[in-house]
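Ticket #4471: structure output looks truncated?

Reporter: J.K.
Steps to reproduce: submitted the chain below (843 residues) through the standard prediction queue, then opened the result file.
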Amino acid sequence: MAKQPDHLSSPLMRRLGRTRLFTRTAIVVERLWPLALPLLIVAALFLSLSWLGIFRIVPEWARLGLLGLLGLAALASLWPLSRFRAPRAHEVDRRIEAANALRHAPVSVQTDRLSSSGDAFADALWREHQKRMADRLGRLSGDLPRTGVPERDPWGLRAAVALLLVVAFAFSYGPLGGRVTDGFSARGGVPAIPPRIDAWVTPPTYTGRAPIFLTADANAARNVFSVPEGSAVSLRITGGSGSETLAFLGERGTETIEPEATPATVAQAGNSSRQFAATLERDGVLALMEGDEQQLGWTFQVVPDHAPVIRFAEEPGRAVNGTLDLRYEIEDDYGAVSAVAEFKQADEAAADARPLYPAPDMALTLPRRDGRSIAARTTRDLTEHPWAGSRVRLSLKAVDAAGQEGRSEEKTIILPERPFSNPLARALVEQRRLLALDANAKPRVRDLMDALMLRPEDTFDNLSHYLGLSAARTQLVMADSDDALRAVADYLWEMALAVEDGGLTDAERRLRQAQEALRQALENGASDEEIDRLMSELRQAMNDFLREFAERAARDPNMARQQMPQGQELRQSDLDRMLDQIENLAKSGSRDQAQQLLSQLQDMMNNLQMGQNQQGQQGGQQSEMRQQMDKLGQMLRRQQELMNETFRLDQMQRGQQGQQGQQGEQGQGQQGQGQMSPEEFAGAMRQLQEGQGQLQSQLEELMRGLEGMGIQPGEGFGEAGEAMGRAEQSLGQSEGERAVGEQGQALEALRRGAQDMMQQMQQAQQGEQGEGQEGGRQQSSDRDPLGRPRATTGPDFGESVNVPDEIDTQRARRILEEIRRRLGNALSPELERNYLERLLEMR
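Returned output as attached by the reporter:
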């Protein structure tokens, strides 16, 4: 090409250069596009098949076949590219001149040159021609590519390929979308259908929660699942590619869950089943992954399982027969599985102390697992334990199904012991306790025995007791081991019982043993046959006990004359009905309610055993209290009568004065019949004044009597005395209306004082019933031997024990019989048998 002519300006040359570049590009596109279109169509088909997941679901031979076809098509589409020819400069110039309709080739002239030179006139003429042609290049435009593809594809199939590519790209972001590399990944035996995924969460058995099926349609819309701590999550994949993984995303990062080695995975290579299992301990997301993509996910909110809480509902108490009575409350998320009372010696022992007996073992009754009640009660006879009578630190411990423990605060009490009235028996029990708490106290116990045997004629009423104590001393001296010392301690206890010798000792022991055996059977879930046998023994022991009690009452005239207070009558029908209820509840599965009724039965027998002695000891003081109560009742009635009489006289006097005023206006001065003169009214008021004064004196005397009994008169009595004094003064001044008001105040104050006096009397009686030991508590006197409220304190609304009616009991028993029948069927599935066994354990 010749040198750029001088007549062409730089802007013109730049514009011409841009036009040539644009035109050259258009020519390249229109020549290359038809040749490259087949290769692009093949590539678009490959991408569409990959993104649609076709290579994942087709068999291996089909995948290889498709890849082979596409490969051949790609090679074939490369052949037309060999015919591509780049545009030349004169072709570009001619295309510009054609596109702009330029005549005489003005663009080509600018780069052309003469074939020969040397003629100055010819050169000048040529330059003039180029200059004139350059003037026509003021406005140049390029040309668009004309590929001719529409003429070659009149049906527009190329658009269908493009549409398929767009749809496949969008589908690739879904759960079933594929990847570009799927066509080159060997997936032998991949099924043509999506894998089956089953996922579920099984809460711990003790929670009583039902399993949650995560992949159910009903749970598809749930975002968060709330499950108890320790729940087991399981996921099973049937079929699939085999590359799925399960991961848990929590606050500690991502944890991969490895699949379990199941027989199905090994045996069925063509249709494998993989199962994952994990335990949920904290919040997080469970994700099913395939490669780097998440197929499914579930978010879990784990509800923590807190340790049980156990606390005393009341102070540890002592029943009338010496049994330890504990009332407490147990709270747990899903109910505690066991609870015990733990004992420790409160008094600091010597450094070298060697106890012979461990602490008492006392299992506690658990509340019902219905979630409606947390209160429970346990009574246990620990009077025979060597620790009885010593100061101990008591604490309660509860354990839930997860193994977590909860403890209560410590209480320092004196462990209830059996009361002995015989001094020798009390001495033997004290020696036994000293020896049991410290084996090193052997010399001291021996010295105490020697002191008892120093003057046998003054100490022993029965020679056999002296011989027994002498034998105990000999055994103590010869004891050279802890076992031998324990034998001596046991012998001292048996001897103390023989010395005390109660008329009902044997019957009482058999009754307690029968009650304890039945209680343990209810706690351990004994069979119906065992319950029948123990109930029969309990009925026989109770009949023997009541018969001996009646015989003793017949032999003792003083005991026979003492009658039980109103509302505490003990009838055989009540005992039979209670025993029948215990048996029916135990057989119907309501073991907790049966234990509560058995506890009430123990309270009833405790009251019966100790009631007569308490009546004899407290009869004098109760008689004096009753006299004071009778006096107070008479004073209340007398004050009411005085107030009524004062009101009647005052109203009569006011009515008489009104009638006299009317008669004066009418000129009638006669006095009507039945009317009182002022002198008569004043005399009647003086009589009431004397009565009011006497009543005040009686109140002062009553207050002095209460102080002599140790009962402090309340403020009500003082206010009543002041109101009586004001009423007496008003009556002396014949002010009836004012006196009535003062008398009403006195009556109300007397009632308040009476209530306070009754409360103090009840507290005094309960204090006398106790043993005066720390932690002692007597059963409330407002209940009868069956534990029901007396008629004086209101009816029993059934809140103490919720006994099911007969229909519920029969239905529960039929259900239990059906469960046991199904368990006895050897053909029942293992899963059903496990479920039925859990139902029986939840009773």
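Triage note (M.O.): checked the attachment and the full token line is present. The chain has 24 helices and 19 strands.
Status: closed, working as intended.
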